[in-house]
Amino acid sequence: MSSNRTDATPTRRHWLPASAGRLLRLVVVVACIAIVLLALRAWQAAKASPLQPWHTLSAKEPSASQILRGDWQAYLAAENQLFARVRAELDADMTPEDAHPLNRYTAGSLSSPERFERDWNRSFVLEPGAAPRGVAVLVHGLTDAPYSMLRLAMLYNAAGYIAIVPRMPGHGTVPGALVRAEKSQWQATVAMAMAEAGRRANGRMPVHLVGYSNGAALALLHEVDRLRAGKPADTGQLVLLSPMVKVTAFARYAGLAGLPAVLPRYARAAWSEVLPEYNPFKYNSFPVHAARESYLVTADLQDGLDALAADGRLSGMPPILAFQSVVDDTVEASAVDRLLFDKLAADRNELVLFDVNRNRLLQPLQVPATTAWADALLHGPAHAHAVTMVGTTSLDDAAAVARTRLAHADSQTMQPLGIGYPADVFSLSHIALPFAEDDALYGRIPREGHPLQLGAIALRGERNTLVVPQASLERLSYNPFHAYMTARITKLLATDAASASPGDASPEN
Question: pLDDT (tens digit, 9 = 90+) per residue, 360-417?
């Protein structure tokens, strides 16, 4: 008997789930975009002007563990060796074409550190003339040098404090040093300097920790790390200038932009900016690695603040007095309030803001959204910290005042400052806060013996002509309200002097 039945084996088909297929396509698209961007970055690097000796020298510094194993004197000894080694390597690599009147690395140039009474690129200590009554550690910012903390160090020193100003690894020598500098080295240097402050204070004197920009973030992170480790704060007061609480999104992914630099032909890709080095105490060139490290500092800071807040341990943070420009192109200005002060929720903290110029002629040219967050601090719901706004209150009156709203308060007090908002200044800037108008380098008041006054430069000409971005030459480099800021810090020091105990300062480390 025959059968017409056919045993057919069905064909097996393997299909990815729809969601997995979409994910795969997305991954392929992202990979293609990344490859194109990296290729473009490599092409740009190959066409860019070549790097100079001060970009290619590594200027290797002690590791974080070496810094922590040593002390202040060991750090100074290593620093002296570093500067001697870098100078010798530069002299061997530089050509006659590299020598020009504005190159900071040319001996005797207008921008040479030698024109100042000492090389403020190096760590230094200012000792009081009489028995000390306190110790302050002052931490400079990214691409800066200890010079940026000089005026505040002198303020503390005049008040009888020992002022300790460490140079952060990667700074003060050549910008190439920042290609390899790590945040762990910066953290170790802050810890080492604070240990020296604790040794000098010996539990008998107050200790202040002062930070500017990235140095402010490092100061905060130092105290946060101590609290997370179960240790008490080792300072009785934090003073912060332009604190780097949150940086731009580019910094988070900056390391990717430097990937083509693994090939020598594309070494230029490791740099976001390569500019002439005419500033004796600050790098003009900027490697992408430094941006990445600064982001990691802020990321660790936020993680630490969140962890302490979750455990209810943020009350262990020392009091904070911070100064911030309402507009800031380097950091997110509003994050200082939102991601720092609002988390602290303590009545002993104050945020001092420097407002934009509200002049009737200038206000229509300004972007309103950039100042809305600061206006809300003065007029919106009360906060658990004090807020002071330095600026004007009338479109037609340039007289500057300080309006203060205390923690949990609805009303404001007003203090006339006796000065006007400069008519030719529309706002402060991130880099302006530490420097007074008569600063020998960044101020606008001429100082005898200092022919290079960067703060007074007023160049005029056509766009896209200079190798230096015109915006960098126009950026305000001094603080018109510096006297008010120092008066506020002096008031803190007077409070310390009236106190019978060193407060929260502790020699433990």
Answer: 778 787 888 889 999 999 999 999 999 999 999 988 899 999 999 999 999 999 999 9
Where does 366-474 show beta strands of DSSP type E? 386-391, 399-405, 413-420
Domain that holds residue 464: 437-478
Beta strands 320-325 and 286-287 are unpaired
pLDDT digits (tens, 9 = 90+) for 139-169: 999 999 999 999 999 999 999 999 999 999 9
CB 343 within 8 A of CB 315: no
Q: Are residues 426 and 470 in the same domain?
A: no
| Interval 436-477: pLDDT, tens | 999 999 999 887 777 788 888 777 788 777 778 777 778 999
Instruction: Give strand ranges (E) for 179-285.
Output: 207-212, 237-241, 271-273
Residue 200 lies in a domain: yes
d(CA 188, CA 281): 22
User: Do you know the residue count of the chain?
Assistant: 509
Residues 396 and 407 in one domain: yes
pLDDT digits (tens, 9 = 90+) for 192-201: 999 999 999 9
Sheet holding 386-391, edge to edge: 124-126, 161-165, 134-139, 207-212, 237-241, 320-325, 350-354, 386-391, 399-405, 413-420
Distance CA 307, CA 329 (A): 29
Q: Are residues 316 and 447 in the same domain?
A: no
What is the average pLDDT value for the chain, to the nearest integer?
87
Rounded to a whole number, what is the distance in angstroms from the first to the last CA of the chain?
A: 98
**CA distances for 179 relative to 54, 169, 272, 274, angstroms:** 11, 11, 11, 13
How many CA atoms does the CB half-sphere of 229 hold within 13 Å?
Answer: 12
pTM over 0.90: no
169: exposed, middle or buried (Cβ count in 10 Å: 0-12, 13-18, 19+): buried
Q: Say which residues have a Cβ less than 8 Å from residue 218's Cβ, sequence separation at least 6.
A: 139, 168, 186, 187, 190, 211, 297
Q: What is the mean pLDDT of residues 179-196?
A: 97
Burial (CB count within 10 angstroms: exposed 0-12, middle 13-18, buried 19+), residue 333? buried
Assigned domain for 7 exists = no
Q: Do residue 139 and residue 192 come from a single domain?
A: yes
Of residues 210, 209, 182, 175, the one with CA closest to residue 195? 209
Task: Say yes or no: 494 and 374 in one domain.
Answer: yes
Tokens for 24?
A: 């795969």
The domain that contains 127 carries what CATH number? 3.40.50.1820
Facing residues of 399 across strands? Answer: 420
Tokens of 146: 């200890």
3 state SS of 247 = strand
CA 431 to chain centre: 9
Higher pLDDT residue, 257 or 18? 18
